[in-house]
Amino acid sequence: MNKKFIAAATVAVVCGTTQAALLAYEGFDYAASTGIGQVGGLNGGTGFSDAWTSSQPVDGDSNFQILEGGDSWGALEVSGNRLDRVSTGGTEYLARTLTADLDATPELWFSVLLRPGQNEGFAIAGSPLAEDGSIPDVTLDGNAGFGFVNSDDANLQAAVWDDAGDRIVGTSLALTGKDVVQFIVGKIAFNSGGSGEDVLSLYSVGTDLLLPGLAGADVAADLDETVLSMLTIESNRGPGYDEIRIGTTMEDVGIVGIVPEPATLGMLVFAGGGLMYIRRKFMIG
Q1: CA dihedral 25, 138, 39, 202 (to 10 degrees)
Q2: Cα angle vertex 17, ends 11, 19, to 5°?
Q3: What CATH number does residue 122 fall under?
Q4: Which of 51, 57, 71, 235 has the most C-beta neighbours closer than 10 Å?
Q5: Domain that holds residue 97
Q6: Which residues are CB-contacts of 143 (< 8 A; sequence separation ≥ 6)?
């Protein structure tokens, strides 16, 4: 193994491929505005064809607001403030239409800075998540979707909504606590399962922005991905969201590389040690 190959191997471990353009980005870069009914109609970010819509725009049950001081996570590029809930009262969904053709590539990635609450759901879907005061069981118009749900502050479940709009949950990853920021990354691999199912994998990513080698949670189902057209959030228990990204590669959503496997690290250390030995031998000899 020559020096050039060692360097290339090192780069392959710690770096990803060239970043492509984001399909959508929402950093909630809006003026802080607290109280009920503060989010419906906001239309910043990129990759959307309309403004945020609330299911409770006029009856005083719209409890999302914009708080000053957005969240941060390592070297992740961030902007603006963040989305929050006024209280645990009420139920509602937020939804916004995406402009991109979301099934045009084999994979779709998303990421979000999450402050966990209870009874919440997050999805890229064909219609909004229904609001019923619990974790969302269905999508409003019976369309497919990919995302996550949780009913407590301890576990985040990988979830999909099938072609009838009914929720299917998979395994869970651990949450760090109520209102504690966590960087969640999702990978949707279309038609990649053993029988052609679509596979959703969730990862909890550290501040080094390196993707773990194994997913923290996953779920698989054969869905109609052609209906995907919307970003939707449902809650009645005060979660916070910030820095939402949707793309076709992990680099698009803020990942800089993959956590090296122990064997890979050992190979690099061994190779590096051999290189130092050869260098010293030639210098001495």
Answers
A1: -30
A2: 130
A3: 2.60.120.200
A4: 235
A5: 91-258
A6: 125, 126, 127, 161, 163, 165, 227
Say which residues have a Cβ less than 8 Å from residue 47's Cβ, sequence separation at least 6: 22, 23, 24, 25, 98, 99, 100, 246
Counting beta carbons within 10 angstroms of the beta carbon of residue 75, is it exposed (0 to 12), middle (13 to 18) or buried (19 or more)? exposed
- Tokens 């000899």 found at: 285
Instruction: Encode pLDDT of 274-283 as tens digits.
Output: 444 444 444 4
Task: Tell me the Ramachandran region of residue 243: left when phi exceeds 0, alpha when psi lies from -120 to 50, beta otherwise.
Answer: left
What is the total count of domains within the chain?
1
Asked, for residue 189, whether it belongs to a domain, the answer is yes
pLDDT digits (tens, 9 = 90+) for 208-249: 999 999 999 999 999 999 999 999 998 877 678 999 999 999
Main-chain phi, psi angles of 263, to 5 degrees:
-65, -35
